[in-house]
Amino acid sequence: MKKSVKKQTKRNTKSNARRKPKKQTNNAYVKIINFLATSCYVGYLPKAPGTWGSLFTVALFWLVFRHLNFSYFLWFILLIFAAGVFISGEYNRLHGQKDAPEAVIDEVLGQSIALLPVVWLFYTIKRIEPEMLTLYIVHLHFLLGTLISFGLFRFFDILKPLGIKQVEKLPGGWGVMLDDVLAAVYAFIVFMLLAFIFWYTTLVVYIVN
Questions:
Q1: What DSSP assignment string belongs to the chain?
Q2: Which of 18, 109, 136, 173 shows the greatest Cβ crowding within 10 Å of its Cβ?
């Protein structure tokens, strides 16, 4: 009798050892992390979630931030970075992934930084000469600038050249966020170079004529 009890106890012990402990995760907490990491569930849209995240950022500026002060946009960038490191890392931990493609909060941060030259120029004109914003040609320039900024950021974010791939290997949310920051910095630099070439060429043509 004692032997059978001991055998049964051993079996139960082995059975319990094989069982993996269940995660005690608050359902509401998971939903909040999912909502924030995927930028209002934009990351769940089909195909190219990163591109959707960038488009979401562009729409956010034109629909919301262009009506506010420039400082609000800068605070938004700082907030997204500070919160994004934790949120993206937590999302990956909860879902057992390293860099989940649907978590596009990093694209929102990167595209916001890449858009800074366009945003700054918009706010400068709005403050100094607001009547210019009613002109069709000015809106056309802003649209072109937005498209170039968007294209440059997507280029660097997708191909990940010049050390971006290495930065992505940093642990947790740091790698997720900082590789997009670096991609945005490269996009920013190239955009400024293109803008300088454009304005310099325009100035030379104006002087010559």
A1: -HHHHHHHHHHHHHHHHHSPPPP---HHHHHHHHHHHTTTTGGGSSS-HHHHHHHHHHHHHHHTGGGS-HHHHHHHHHHHHHHHHHHHHHHHHHHT-SS-TT--HHHHHHHHHHTHHHHHHHHHHHHH-GGGGGSHHHHHHHHHHHHHHHHHHHHHHHH-TTTHHHHTTSSHHHHHHHHHHHHHHHHHHHHHHHHHHHHHHHHHHHHH-
A2: 109
